[in-house]
Structures are given as structure tokens and as C-alpha cells.
Amino acid sequence: MSYDVIDRLVRPANPVPDPTMLKPVDFSVLPVHRKEDMQREQVEVDHVEETGVRRRGWIGIAAALVVLLGGLVLFQMANQDDVASEPTPLEIATAYLAAYSQFDMEAVESMLADDAEVLPWEAYEPRDWKSDLRFLEAAGFQILVGECTEATATDGAFAFNCAYGAHGLGSDQIGLGPFTGHVFRLVIEDGLVTRSDMGFTFTEFSEQMWWPFQAWVNENHEDEFAVLYVDPGLSRQTDDAIVLWEQRVADYVEYVNNPTTTTTPVEGSVPAELVGIWRGRSSTGEMVNFRLEGTTYSVSVADINFIGDVVVSDDTIVIPATPDTGLASSPGSQCSIDRQFTWSIEGDELILTEVVEDTCFTMEYLAGTVFKKFWSP
Amino acid sequence: MDTVSPLRQRRFEELYERHMLEVLAYCMRRLGRTNAADACSETFLIAWRRLDDLPEPPQTLPYLYGIARRVASNQARSLRRRSRLDARLTALGVSTAPDPELLVAQSNRDQEIVAAVRRLKPKDREIVMLYAWEDLPRDTIAEMMGMTRSAIDQRIHRANKRLARILQPDSYPTPPLAQEGGT
After folding, report:
1. Lowest mean pLDDT segment, chosen from A42-51, A156-165, A198-207, B19-28
2. Quick one: DSSP state of residue A262?
């Protein structure tokens, strides 16, 4: 079954194809729940009736807002005596963040609801927050908790946005950071945290710490890249990886604080103007990260990641076909050939042109993509 | 009681009249008739609170859908807590059970397709629904979901692939509810 057929099947299966069909039945539905609230608060509903069915909705909603706030005040008044024994949602939020910043897994877990949604540090895919916490501790992170402010939440829940700063990958030991502007977002229901989103803003941290550290790993511990990273933008958090993160972060701090003498560039190594991470969109729309440094390169596109040696001359970049580069997936086949491009920098753009046509599509993401410098060491 | 600014009141009234049905339909597609009204109401309650943050058209409706998505998600969690029976029905997406009232007018084939859509991974399912049922452009969906346009294309492609597999005749014996959540 072809995919456009699927699309043509799914569209007409829409359970509510025409919202206007809801009108006669469902306009009355909305105010029903709120009406009870309104009656409880003795809000005058006659006005609602007069102003028409559609107006009922917003008046009901406004009334509900009043009910919610009023209820909260009444609740707080009625429970003043209990305040000392029952922690407030803000106190829970503060205690949760204190536990998180101390990497106290047991304390964090004790405050989380069973079905809590936890988005840890690298949150673009769901991850195991416990591993993430262990990683943060091992990789020299410090969470510097700031103030929490209450945010909009649904009924029965309390939401807080808590500003925080952070050190990471030993930034505090090499005179960088703390990196600020992050917001921990918490939702608390029935005395437990039901949602925890670490809300880390990567830009500045990535430029100053993440990419330089990764470049150093590539340069000095290339074989460990796959242990430390799932892809260039995502740490690996296995037990082995966490031990290695701790070790390499310490080594990196040592390296930055006690730089060795500069070595003479190896012949064929990447010239200064090319060193760094280049980013651009391929002809098929994917974001391509192309990193060049020393005698190595890496390319990451979506979940594809190539890493290997590179030989650069005045106008060509050659990526030799070796098993490690991923270009020789079929040894002995005609696809097992070096990839060769001419390169030029025009303005701030890097242009790569294929010298030999890539009939095997092993590096189709590079040719034709207009790259711009994303990061320089 | 504080008086509400007439301007604010009028703005909200316009917003409500313009988008109430679309938001209600959005909620019904995901939650069924019984729970949709509550979620819709909740969505507008939040919109009322955040009236000053609302973007101008044409971004208003996607913004409301964004609120409704979170409300529906929270409601799903509340439902799961409420009872084990409910949890069984709603465990992997809001209202895994087809709403009988909604489905009365649908053909068997359409019901099968709806069931198949409900078996997609939550994020893929949401994207497919936004694209096919709310009829939003892919760029708008990308903005709503905080994803790139190409990621949306890939998700739709992947979802269509999975739907094609689910809708193959020989895959029907598996009960839809047992497969919720995807691979």
C-alpha cells in the first residue's frame, strides 16, 4: 500500500470532519461543568442566559477562574493551621531542585509521582533520568538553583518555573561559565512532582564547552568517541561511559589549564580556516554537521554519523575509504572508494564539489550542501 | 471581585467564538465526546489567563491546539489515576477506546483506520492527526511541536509506513488496544 494512499485513507477517517457539525449539540456542553462552579460561587447566571449560548463559555471560564482563585484562598485560610506540617507546592519544588542539584537520586525519586514525566538534561528524546543524573555528576556539572516563580497550571496542579545556572564539563575549573538562562519547569500535583523538565539552554554552553571538549576527545581519544557519545549532540550514559566521562573531563581540565607546546601541523591536516564545525541543509532538507579538525572529520545527519580520517590540500578534501569511515561497508565493491571533493570558502560559506560522482551515495550529504561555520575552536 | 477590562473581555469573546468549535473538535478527536468538553473548557481557561501571550492569526489556532495538547495529556494522566479500568483504556494515549457516539456515523473501514492511527507512537500520532485531521501545514506543525520541518516530514513518512503495515489485511487479528504505543 503506497503512502499517499495511506494519506488519502486517513483524511476521510477523521472522527470529527466538520467542526461546525458540533454546533447544535455541543455548544451547550462547555458551560455545564463551569455552571456548577458558578452556582457554588453564587454567580449570577441570568446574565449568561441573556447574552446567548456562545457567551456562556467565556463567562463560565472567567467565573471558573474566580472560583479557582477563591477556592485557593479559602483552602489556604482553612488550612492555615496545617501549613507547618504540610509542605507547600513551592517548598516541594525547592526541595526537589535541591535534591536534583545534589544529584541525590533517592531524594529525587521520593518526590516524584509514579507516572511522572521527567525530561532530563538532554531532553530531545525521553531518557532515563537516573542515568542522566549520574552523568551530570560524573561530567562535572553543578546546578546553581535560583528563584522559582509560579506559572500557569491546570486545575489541581501547581506549576513553577525555576531559573538556574550551571557549570559543566569542568567549566568552573577552567574559568568559564556559569552558564545561565536555564529554566527548570516543575508541575506538582497532590504533593508530588508529576512533571520535571530541566529546560537547559545549550547555545552558550555548547559553544564554549560541549564542542571544544568533543574536539579535544576526537583529537586525543578518538577511539573513545563512540563510548562517550551516541552522536555528536548526545552523550552516552552507560555505566562504562559515565566512568569515562568523569575521567576525560578531569583530563580536559588538566589539558586546558596546562597546555602543552603547540605541535607542528601534520601534512594533510585541516587548515586553520576549515577547522571547526560547519552546518548546512542538504538538498533533501536534513541538517548536516560537518566537523573538521587535525586529520579527522565527522559528519552527522539525523541519526547517521561518520567519523574518520581526512586529508586536506589547498583545494581538495579526501576522505579515504576505510572500514572506520563507514565508506567501506561493502569491502571490495566498487563503493569502497575514497570520496574526494574540491573545497572553497566564499564569504562565510564552505562549498564542496565532488571530484568523482558519488554513485554509491555514501557521502551525498556533503556535496551540494552550503555550509556555514557553526563553531570555531 | 475585580472587574475585567471590557477590551480584554471582548478580545476573549472573539477568540472563543472564532475558535471554540475547532478546539472542541480537536479535543473530541483525541478524547472522545465525554471528556472533550472539559478539556476544551480547560483550554480556554488557560487561554483566558494567557490572553496577553496569544499570538496573532494565523498562529492563534495552532497556539490553542498547543494548549489543548497539554491539557489532553494531563487529562489522560488524571484518567489513568482515577481507576485501573480507565487506565487500561487510556494507558497509551488518551482515549484508546473508540467513542461509540463518534463512531456511529463512521464506516467500519474508517473505524479501523482511526484505530490504526491510535496505535502510532504518541508523538507520531499527534503529528499525523494535526496534519490529516486538523489540516495544518507541515511548517506550522513543526513550529508547534518544536521540531524541524524535515523531522516532521520524517515522522509523517514513518507513521504512514507503520499505518500501511497495520492496515495490511493479515495484520488485523491483533486487537488494536493491545498494540497501543508502537515500537
Report:
1. A42-51
2. P
Lookup: cell for B3: 472587574
CB contact under 8 A, A12 and B77: no
Cα angle: A305, vertex A309, A314; to 5 degrees: 115
Give the pLDDT score at A264: 53
Alpha helices in B51-148 (DSSP H): 60-82, 84-90, 100-103, 108-118, 122-132, 138-145
Give the chain B residue whose CA is nearest to the CA of A54. B17
For residue B166, give the C-alpha cell: 497495520
Indicate whether A141 pLDDT > 70: yes
Please name which of A137, A278, A123 lies closest in space to residue A202, comparing C-alpha atoms. Answer: A123
**3-state DSSP helix/strand/coil percent for chain B, to nearest 5?**
75, 0, 25
Residues of chain A contacting residue B4, judged by C-beta atoms under 8 Å apart: 62
ipTM score over 0.85, yes or no: no
Distances (CA, A) of B26 to A105, A377, B17, B68: 39, 48, 15, 8
Cell 535534591 belongs to A99
Q: Do B161 and A154 touch (CB under 8 A)?
A: no
Binary contact (B132, A11; C-beta < 8 A) = yes
Do the Cβ atoms of B42 and A155 come within 8 Å? yes
C-alpha B147/C-alpha B126 separation (Å) is 13
Least confident window among A93-107, A239-253, B168-182: B168-182
For residue A185, pLDDT beyond 70: yes
pLDDT confidence of A299, banded at 50, 70, 90?
A: confident
Q: Quote the cell numbers at residue A337.
A: 572508494
Stretch B56-83: mean pLDDT, rounded? 75
pLDDT in tens, A308-349: 778 888 888 888 765 444 444 334 444 556 778 888 888 888
Nearest chain B alpha carbon to A53: B17
Q: Do A64 and B103 touch (CB under 8 A)?
A: no
**B113/A10 touch (CB, cutoff 8 Å), yes or no:** yes
Instruction: Give which of A206, A258, A251, A261 is closest to A224, Cα–Cα.
Output: A251
Q: What average pLDDT score do residues B95-102 get?
A: 45
Least Cα separation, residue A230 to chain B (angstroms):
18
One-letter amino acid at B148 equals: T
Given a contact cutoff of 8 angstroms between Cβ atoms, the answer to whether A139 and A246 are in contact is yes
Residue B58 burial by Cβ neighbours in a 10 Å radius (0-12, 13-18, 19+): exposed
Handedness of CA B19, B22, B25, B31 (dihedral sign): negative
**pTM beyond 0.90:** no
Minimum distance, in Å, between the CA of residue B173 and any CA atom of chain A: 18
Residues from chain A that touch B161, judged by Cβ atoms under 8 A, are 3
Q: What residues have CB less than 8 Å from A56, skipping those under 6 apart?
A: A30, A31, A35, A48, A49
* Distant-in-sequence, close-in-space partners of A10: CB < 8 Å, separation ≥ 6: B113, B117, B128, B132, B133, B163
Q: Which of A3, A61, A65 has the CB atom closest to B164's CB atom?
A: A3
Q: Indicate if the pLDDT at residue B101 is higher than 90.
A: no
